[in-house]
Each structure stands twice: as C-alpha cells, then as structure tokens.
User: Which sequence fits this backbone?
C-alpha cells in the first residue's frame, strides 16, 4: 500500500515587501509594546479620574447630572475600545505588514472595524459630557450667542458621530469583504473615512476648547482664579494636540500600504485624545474632592463651594472693610468700591470694580460645577468684558 504524504502550504504573507527587504516572520520588530504602555496609562488615569468624579458627585455633593452619565458611558465604551486595540496589537498590529501573515492582516481589518464603532460612542459621549458641563457652568441662565454656539456644537457632533457609528457597520457589502478583500462585492474607502474623522475631530476639539477659555477670561474673577480655571479646562489642549498628531499619521496611512504598522500609530493618538478628553471632564470636579479630603471647608448643604473659589468671600469682606465705599449710580445706582491694587494683585490695578459681583461670579461657577441650577450668564460675561 502506497504511503500518503501531506504537505502544508506556507502561510500567505500579508504584503509584498519593498525592494531589497527580506520578510522576517519569526520575532519581527513591533511597536505593539508602546501600544500596551499607552493602553495601561489610559486605563489607570481615566479610571481613577472618573471614579474620583463620581465619588465626589454621589457621596459628597450628592447630585448627579446628565454630564456625569455621559462621562461614564464615554469611559465604559473607551475601555471596550482599548480592549479591542490590545487584541489587535497581540495579533500582528504594530508589525510591518510584509512581516505578517494574511490571517493577521484579516484579523486587524476585522477588529479595527469593531473598534471604529466603539470609538464613535466613546468620543461622542466624552465631548457631549464636556459640552453639557460648559452649559451648566457658564451658560445656563441666558440663551445668547455662545449658548447657541454650544448647542450647535452638540448637534453637529451628534450628527457626525451617529453617521460614523453606522458607516463602519455598513462599510462593505457583504460585511465579510471588510477583512476578506478577495470576496466579490464593494466597499467604501476606509482610509478616506479615517481622514474625514481626523479632520473633524481636530476642528471640533479646538472649537470646544475655545468656548470655556473665552468665557473664563470674560468673567469677573481675579487673574489668579482665571488662570486656575483655564489650566483645568486647558487639559483639552492636550486632546487637541493628540487629534492633530492623529491627523498627521492618518495622512501617512493614506499614502502607505503598510496598514498594520501605521494604523497602530494612529490608534495610540486616538487613545490619548479620548483619555485627555475624559480628564478635562473630570478636573473641574476634583477641587471639591480635595476640599473634602483635606477638610478645608466641610460640606454643609448648599453653602459649600469648589476649591477654585475657596476664600473668595473672605477676600471680598476684607476688601469692603479696608476700602472706601462710594455711590456711583451706574445704570441702577449700585454700590461700588474703589480698590487699591496693592491689596490684591489679582484685581485690575487702580480701577473701580464691583467686588460683590466678582464674588458672585466665582460662587456661581462653583455652584454650577457642583451641579446646582444656575451658572454664569451672558450678562456676567458682558460685564466682565467691560472691566
């Protein structure tokens, strides 16, 4: 009886290598370890920040708002997104495509598609949470131009991410062609979609960051407090930088066939973008937690304030006692205080300002961050601009 031999064909490589490059399938170089570090950093930092935020809102302030729910949804979907990207990194992601097998490339395409769906959910809820927080802090009283601008940003982001939620699902017909490109059918160009997403994210990030920074510097607060609030919301600057770098690597992705390697670079900056967005959401709440832990001002119903305005009432009281009161009668004949700039370097030098209004603005921002009704309205912004 003749003996039968079985010959296993070698696995098909994922891409034809460039000229003078010899493929290495055993222990090829990979940037996946950097992805692992990125994922671990994102998980640790965002989990701590979101947990601290929710502890503060539930146990200390005892008030949970819509922006808290959307922040939690953004964090949970971000965790799923990170899990998907970790799996991709363990199956050929981060390796030059000519050093991978076709089955690894197909795995990358398939799970990247799932990751794109989760990315839209995570980033939209992160941005929605921040926009809701901006509305509550600065724009909850009057509906002026900035209120409508913030609402417009919500609507535009909502429409965009709803579309980009469904686009990956219906990217190809049949769906299996997403990861098996030899199948008959047709697909949208995913690289063009990545480019559109990267450009939109960068523009919307910059627009969202501009609104609170503009409002902060037109409120009646001391310069020190304006700087402190700007630094809190300025975390969004890092999200903007991440979206810009993601856009740069997306351009490289469009120009290259080395998908498994370059796409993982865009993923790392996408992870950073969402992580910084969640951090920007949580930082405005954390001074209240610090205040509670350090027992600076124990919480007593609705009279407590967040750390950014701690001691503002004392400053205003001292200023009133030490400075000369005059009645100026501006519009409604209110009381005004002539301030000597030597008493408080944070106040505008040698000018007449309404200390009571300045204190009210700081208190109002503190209450709004804690989730109470009422925030700095557009009238406060206009008054601040004129001083």
Assistant:
């Amino acid at each position: 009886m003749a003996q039968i031999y079985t010959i296993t064909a070698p696995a098909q490589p994922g891409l034809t290598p460039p000229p003078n490059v010899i493929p290495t399938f055993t222990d090829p170089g990979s940037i996946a370890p950097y992805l692992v570090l990125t994922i671990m950093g994102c998980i640790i930092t965002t989990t701590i920040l979101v947990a601290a935020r929710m502890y503060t809102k539930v146990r200390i302030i005892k008030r949970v708002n819509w922006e808290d729910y959307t922040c939690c949804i953004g964090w949970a979907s971000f965790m799923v997104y990170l899990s998907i990207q970790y799996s991709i990194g363990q199956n050929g992601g981060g390796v030059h495509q000519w050093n991978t097998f076709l089955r690894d490339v197909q795995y990358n395409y398939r799970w990247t598609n799932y990751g794109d769906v989760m990315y839209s959910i995570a980033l939209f809820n992160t941005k929605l949470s921040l926009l809701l927080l901006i509305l509550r802090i600065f724009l909850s009283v009057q509906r002026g131009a900035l209120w409508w601008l913030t609402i417009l940003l919500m609507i535009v982001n909502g429409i965009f991410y709803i579309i980009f939620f469904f686009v990956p699902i219906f990217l190809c017909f049949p769906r299996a062609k997403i990861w098996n490109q030899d199948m008959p059918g047709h697909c949208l160009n995913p690289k063009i979609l990545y480019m559109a997403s990267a450009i939109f994210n960068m523009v919307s990030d910059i627009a969202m960051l501009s609104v609170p920074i503009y409002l902060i510097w037109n409120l009646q607060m001391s310069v020190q407090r304006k700087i402190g609030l700007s630094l809190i919301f300025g975390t969004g600057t890092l999200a903007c930088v991440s979206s810009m770098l993601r856009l740069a690597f997306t351009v490289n992705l469009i120009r290259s066939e080395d998908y498994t390697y370059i796409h993982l670079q865009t993923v790392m900056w996408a992870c950073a973008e969402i992580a910084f967005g969640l951090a920007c959401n949580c930082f405005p709440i954390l001074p209240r937690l610090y205040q509670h832990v350090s027992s600076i001002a124990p919480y007593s119903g609705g009279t407590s304030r967040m750390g950014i305005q701690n001691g503002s009432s004392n400053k205003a009281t001292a200023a009133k006692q030490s400075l000369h009161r005059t009645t100026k009668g501006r519009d409604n004949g209110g009381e005004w205080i002539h301030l000597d700039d030597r008493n408080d370097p944070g106040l505008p030098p040698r000018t007449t300002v309404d200390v009571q209004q300045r204190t009210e603005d700081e208190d109002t921002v503190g209450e709004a961050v804690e989730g109470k009704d009422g925030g700095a309205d557009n009238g406060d912004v206009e008054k601040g601009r004129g001083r």
